[in-house]
Design goal:
The complex is a heterodimer of chains A (139) and B (149).
Chain A: H1 2-8, E1 12-15, H2 19-22, H3 28-46, H4 54-85, H5 88-93, H6 97-113, H7 117-136
Helix pairs in contact in A: 3-4, 3-7, 4-6, 6-7
Chain B: H1 3-12, E1 16-20, E2 33-37, E3 49-53, E4 60-67, E5 72-75, E6 78-81, E7 85-89, H2 99-102, E8 105-106, E9 110-119, E10 125-126, H3 133-137
Antiparallel strand pairs in B: 1-2, 2-9, 3-4, 3-9, 4-7, 5-6, 7-8, 9-10
Classes of the chains: A mainly alpha (139), B mainly beta (149).
Chain lengths: 139, 149
């Protein structure tokens, strides 16, 4: 049996690189998700307020669903970097990182609850600042 | 693809590969043994799993095609139209090292399409072309001015 397995075993290894063993983190996904939330709010604002057609209602539902989904992605990605990547020395350098994280999570929730261009812009900016802090710890 | 290129790929393979690391879970697990098609006729098709020479390192990586030539993707802070390129992502969302790190990949860097898992025995079968809905939700593709299809 072991001879057969040895024969079947591929000689080439391909790598599905990820941060689990590699320790690689990236706030890029959170930034994209925050951008998507803002874009969905923008699209929702373009829909007619009065006498919407069936297509308008369909688009409304899709936009809201995607906004909800991506606000959740922001929360997840930010939480992972905050809890798994940031070390005590980073917190020493950026003592407000806990507060920033907490505010992003709150902002993401606010974006789930409302269709609010101001909140979407704030979320995008806050995630961008978080990403800037993350990259500065890499230097 | 020229006849010479077809012959080179046919001879060179690889035909069988082993997966390491976890960015393609749950579709692929570390330790999976896969059959490759080094002569794909119509790839990169969106949703296919491909083996590629990773830009920068040249190491063989396995990722999923989420956009191909002619598609527009959100890369960094701007939109990019892919020419003779593919946009590759892992199924593992933000934890995968993929086109979000090294950008679009030239089609010449693609080595083959993973189409069948022959080990372990309890997971034998074809490789699904589409990702799970949760993985799709994490995709970074965004179509400019319209909703993602």
């Amino acid at each position: 049996m072991s001879v057969v397995i040895r024969w079947l075993k591929p000689a080439t290894t391909v790598y599905a690189h990820c941060d689990v063993p590699c320790g690689i983190y990236d706030p890029h996904q959170a930034e994209l998700a925050a951008r998507t939330v803002a874009r969905m709010v923008e699209l929702l604002g373009q829909l007619p307020k009065e006498s919407p057609t069936e297509a308008d209602r369909q688009k409304f539902v899709r936009c809201v669903a995607i906004k909800e989904q991506h606000a959740e992605i922001v929360k997840h990605e930010i939480q992972v970097i905050w809890s798994d990547y940031f070390k005590p020395e980073h917190v020493e350098r950026y003592p407000d990182i806990h507060d920033r994280t907490w505010k992003i999570l709150k902002l993401a929730s606010k974006n789930k609850q409302n269709i609010d261009a101001q909140a979407a812009a704030e979320l995008e900016a806050a995630v961008k600042e978080f990403a800037d802090i993350f990259w500065s710890t890499k230097k | 693809m020229s006849l010479a290129e077809t012959w080179r790929r046919f001879r060179g393979g690889p035909w069988r590969v082993a997966v390491a690391e976890e960015s393609m879970t749950p579709a692929l697990q570390p330790g999976d043994w896969l059959l490759l098609d080094p002569l794909p006729r119509r790839w990169p098709r969106r949703g296919s799993v491909v083996v590629v020479h990773q830009p920068g390192t040249g190491q063989l990586a396995i990722k999923r095609v989420t956009a191909g030539p002619g598609d527009v993707v959100l890369a960094g802070t701007g939109y990019v139209k892919l020419e003779n390129q593919a946009w590759l992502l892992g199924d593992g969302g933000g934890h995968s090292v993929d086109s979000r790190h090294y950008g679009p990949v030239d089609l010449e860097a693609l080595v083959g399409r993973a189409w069948f898992r022959y080990w372990p025995p309890r997971r034998i079968g074809t490789i699904p072309r589409r990702r799970s809905s949760s993985a799709r939700a994490r995709s970074s593709i965004a179509s400019k001015g319209r909703l993602r299809k």
